User: Which sequence fits this backbone?
C-alpha cells in the first residue's frame, strides 16, 4: 500500500478537527471505522486518502441505549453487535436482520453502523477507476454500459444503487441521523441525509467535508410494531442486495394500521415506496394483499437496458416481507 | 514438523545415500528459495507481488511510523510499525508468522483470517497500527507443543485441506465458532465460514471437519 499517516482520534469532534487540519495541509483524508472497505479503496486508488482518521480510539458511539424517547445506536457499534443486540432484536428486528445480512462475519466484526450507512457505492465502473460522477467526473458509464445492477428508481444523472442494507431499515424506523463536524453537531432527517444524484451526483448523503456520522436516534416504537428485512442476493450469501426490503408495520391482529416500506439495492438512496405504504394501511394481511403490495411496488420503476430483472424481485421481496409480518 | 522426505518417493531411503534435489542443490527451504527468487525480481521491477518488502518500506523517509503494543499468540510485542502496513504484513513480514496467508488482499477470500480479541477478522484489511492493544491469535497459536487442536485434527481426518492455502483462515474462523458454540450444526458451520472461500471447493469436507471437532469436544 502507498505511504499514509494514521491519526488516532480521541473523540468525534477531535476526528472532525483533525480531518479539517489535515485537509488544510493539503492531504486527502478519510475516516475509518472498521476500515475494511476503505483500505480496499485506497489499495485500488479509488480513494486517494493519504491520511486516515482512525475512530477505533474513540470511546463514544459504541452503545445501544433506550430511553422513553426511543433508541440511540452509536455510529461505532459493529454490525455484529447490532445484529445480536437483544434490544434491537426485540423492537427493531429489521435493523438487526439487515446488519446480520451484510458481508461476512469477518466484515461484520469490524464494520460499523455508520460505516455501512456511509460506504461508497459498489458500481463496477466507480470501483474500477472510471472517472464517473462518483469519482468527480461528469458521466455515468452505466447508462450506455453494463447496468444490470443499477438503479430502477431515482436514477439520473448517476444510476448507482445505495449499497447499505442497514440504511433502509433505519429509514423505515424514521431514524434521525446525528452528524459531527468541526463546527459542532447537527441532526438530520433521513429525507435530508440521503441525497439523490439529481441533487449531488458525486455523493450519496449530505455529509460535507470533515463531517462524520456519529449515530442515529430511532423514535420510540409502539408495542404493536413488527418489522422485517428481506434480502435477495445473486448468490446465497456474502454480497450486496439485488433487492432488499425493510418493512415496518403497526398492526392490530392482521390488520395493518400503518406501514413503512423501504427498498435496498434499487435506487441511489434507500427508496421509500409510499404507494405500497398507502395501499397497505387498513388492509388485512393475506397472500393476495401481499402480492398486490409487491406489484404496486414496481409501478413507478424505470429500468435501464439490462436491469429489468429487478422488477419481479422487488415484487417478490415486498410480498415476502409482508407475509413475514403476518400475525401468528 | 513438515518432513516431506518421509512421504515422498525420492531416492533417499538408504541413509547412506545423500539425496540432492537437482532443482535445489543448496537444500534451501521452499520459502528461502521463493524469497531469494522474489528478491531478484523485485530488484529488477521495483515491485513485489507479495506485498511491500521490509527494506523498501523502511527506506521511504516520509513514512509515518507509530509505536504499538500487540499480543500475538500469547507473546507481547512493543513495535514501531509503518502506518501503511496491514496486520497481515506485520504478522508475515515482521513477526515471520507466515501461516497467515494473503490471498485476495481485499477482504474477499478469508485466507488472512486471524482472531483479534477472539473474533475473526481479515488481517489484510486491518492496518497494523489499529491492532494497538489487541490480542491476536494466528494459526501458529493453535497447536501447543506439537499437539493439534481438535479442529486441526478433524481437518486432517476429513481431508479438510486440498491445496491448503485457505486452511489457516478456515481454522481460525472455525476456532472462533467452536469457542462460542462448542457443538455447531452443519448449518451453523456454513453460516460462520461463509467468509472463507476455498478455491478447491472442498467445502463439504471442511464443514464435516468442523462438525466433527464440535462433536469431539470443541477446541478446548
Assistant:
Amino acid at each position: 500500500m502507498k505511504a499514509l499517516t494514521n491519526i488516532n482520534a480521541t473523540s468525534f469532534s477531535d476526528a472532525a478537527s483533525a480531518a479539517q487540519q489535515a485537509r488544510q495541509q493539503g492531504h486527502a483524508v478519510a475516516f475509518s471505522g472498521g476500515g475494511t472497505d476503505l483500505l480496499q479503496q485506497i489499495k485500488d486508488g479509488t480513494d486517494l486518502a493519504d491520511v486516515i482518521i482512525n475512530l477505533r480510539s474513540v470511546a463514544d458511539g459504541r452503545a445501544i441505549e433506550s430511553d422513553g424517547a426511543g433508541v440511540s445506536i452509536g455510529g461505532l457499534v459493529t454490525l455484529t453487535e447490532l445484529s445480536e443486540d437483544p434490544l434491537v432484536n426485540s423492537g427493531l428486528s429489521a435493523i438487526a436482520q439487515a446488519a446480520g445480512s451484510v458481508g461476512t462475519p469477518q466484515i461484520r466484526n469490524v464494520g460499523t453502523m455508520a460505516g455501512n450507512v456511509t460506504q461508497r457505492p459498489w458500481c463496477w465502473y466507480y470501483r474500477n477507476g472510471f472517472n464517473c460522477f462518483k469519482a468527480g467526473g461528469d458521466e455515468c458509464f452505466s447508462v450506455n454500459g453494463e447496468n444490470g445492477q443499477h438503479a430502477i428508481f431515482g436514477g439520473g444523472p448517476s444510476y448507482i444503487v445505495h449499497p447499505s442494507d442497514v440504511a433502509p431499515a433505519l429509514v423505515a424506523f424514521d431514524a434521525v441521523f446525528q452528524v459531527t463536524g468541526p463546527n459542532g453537531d447537527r441532526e438530520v432527517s433521513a429525507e435530508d441525509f440521503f441525497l439523490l444524484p439529481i441533487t449531488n451526483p458525486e455523493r450519496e448523503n449530505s455529509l460535507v467535508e470533515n463531517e462524520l456520522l456519529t449515530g442515529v436516534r430511532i423514535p420510540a416504537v409502539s408495542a404493536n410494531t413488527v418489522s422485517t428485512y428481506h434480502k435477495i442476493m445473486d448468490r446465497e450469501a456474502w454480497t450486496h442486495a439485488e433487492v432488499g426490503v425493510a418493512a415496518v408495520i403497526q398492526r392490530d391482529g392482521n390488520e395493518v394500521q400503518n406501514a413503512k416500506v423501504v427498498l435496498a439495492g434499487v435506487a441511489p438512496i434507500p427508496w421509500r415506496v409510499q404507494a405500497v405504504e398507502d395501499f397497505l394501511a387498513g388492509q388485512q394481511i393475506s397472500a393476495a394483499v401481499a402480492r398486490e403490495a409487491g406489484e404496486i411496488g414496481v409501478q413507478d420503476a424505470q429500468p435501464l437496458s439490462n436491469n429489468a430483472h429487478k422488477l419481479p424481485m422487488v415484487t417478490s421481496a415486498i410480498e415476502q416481507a409482508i407475509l413475514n409480518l403476518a400475525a401468528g | 514438523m513438515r518432513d516431506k522426505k518421509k512421504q515422498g518417493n525420492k531416492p533417499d531411503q538408504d541413509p547412506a545415500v545423500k539425496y540432492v534435489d537437482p532443482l535445489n542443490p543448496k537444500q534451501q527451504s521452499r520459502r528461502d528459495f521463493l524469497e531469494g527468487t522474489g528478491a531478484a525480481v523485485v530488484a529488477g521491477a521495483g515491485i513485489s507481488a507479495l506485498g511491500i518488502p521490509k527494506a523498501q518500506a523502511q527506506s521511504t523517509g516520509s513514512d509515518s511510523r507509530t509505536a504499538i503494543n500487540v499480543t500475538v499468540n500469547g507473546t507481547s510485542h512493543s513495535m514501531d510499525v509503518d502506518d501503511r502496513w496491514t496486520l497481515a504484513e506485520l504478522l508475515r513480514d515482521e513477526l515471520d508468522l507466515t501461516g497467515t496467508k494473503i490471498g485476495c488482499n481485499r477482504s474477499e477470500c478469508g485466507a488472512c483470517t486471524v482472531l483479534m480479541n477472539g473474533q475473526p477478522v481479515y488481517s489484510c484489511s486491518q492496518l497494523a497500527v489499529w491492532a494497538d492493544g489487541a490480542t491476536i491469535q494466528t494459526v501458529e497459536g493453535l497447536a501447543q507443543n506439537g499437539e493439534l487442536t481438535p479442529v486441526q485434527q478433524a481437518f486432517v481426518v476429513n481431508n479438510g485441506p486440498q491445496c491448503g492455502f485457505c486452511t489457516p483462515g478456515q481454522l481460525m474462523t472455525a476456532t472462533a465458532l467452536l469457542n462460542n458454540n462448542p457443538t455447531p450444526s452443519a448449518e451453523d458451520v456454513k453460516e460462520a465460514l461463509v467468509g472463507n472461500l476455498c478455491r478447491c471447493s472442498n467445502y463439504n469436507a471442511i464443514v464435516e471437519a468442523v462438525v466433527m471437532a464440535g462433536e469431539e469436544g470443541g477446541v478446548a
